[in-house]
Amino acid sequence: MPYPSLIARLAASLLQTLPGAQAHQRLSPALRFPPHLPMPDQRKARQSAVLLLLYPSIDAQWHIALMQRNPNSRHHAAQISLPGGGIEPQDADLNATALRETAEEFGIDTGSIQVLGALSPIYIPVSNAAYSPLWAIAHNAPILYPTRAK
């Protein structure tokens, strides 16, 4: 396994108290919640997950798998994104959601992917979704067969 100390430090840091909503609010653009619109009821948001898939490449550098969303999608057209989406009935939890979506969107076997932990959930108003970003590692560089995200 490459760089075991990096992986151990990342996993340990995910066990600490995370800054969560306060950091999101401080770093969000001013128009994220326009003052002239009612504040959305985040309790009704769709529970979703994304995967920050960390993997070593042939050049021994760490990479994170990203994709470009379909330019014709309803939300987030042509944006660069992480693999992920909404929880489905067959998903045991948000870890399963993130792994399923990653398998669907990159065409990879997620059996060898190790989920290290979660960052603070973040609400995305335009899609009315509460996303749980999960850090994971593939110990070997996966071969990615990206599909166009919806």
Describe this structure in words.
It is a single chain. The chain has 150 residues and is an alpha+beta fold. It has a single domain, classed as Nucleoside Triphosphate Pyrophosphohydrolase, CATH 3.90.79.10. The protein is 21% helix and 27% strand. It starts with a helix and ends in a 12-residue tail after the last strand. The relative contact order is 0.24.
Structure keywords:
single chain; 150 residues; alpha+beta; Nucleoside Triphosphate Pyrophosphohydrolase
- Strand tally, please? 8
Give the helix proportion (percent range). 10-25%
Gap from first CA to last CA: 34 Å
Number of helices: 3
Give the overall shape.
globular
Helix-and-strand structural type: alpha+beta
The major β-sheet equals: 6 strands, mixed
* Full CATH superfamily name: Nucleoside Triphosphate Pyrophosphohydrolase
Domain count: 1
- CATH topology, which one? Nucleoside Triphosphate Pyrophosphohydrolase
Brief characterization of the structure:
The model has no long low-confidence stretch (mean pLDDT 84).
List the helices and strands and how they pair.
Blueprint (H helix, E strand, L loop, with lengths): L3 H10 L6 H8 L18 E11 L5 E3 L2 E2 L11 E2 L2 E3 L7 H13 L6 E6 L3 E3 L4 E10 L12
Parallel strand pairs: 1-8
Antiparallel strand pairs: 1-2, 1-5, 3-4, 6-8, 7-8
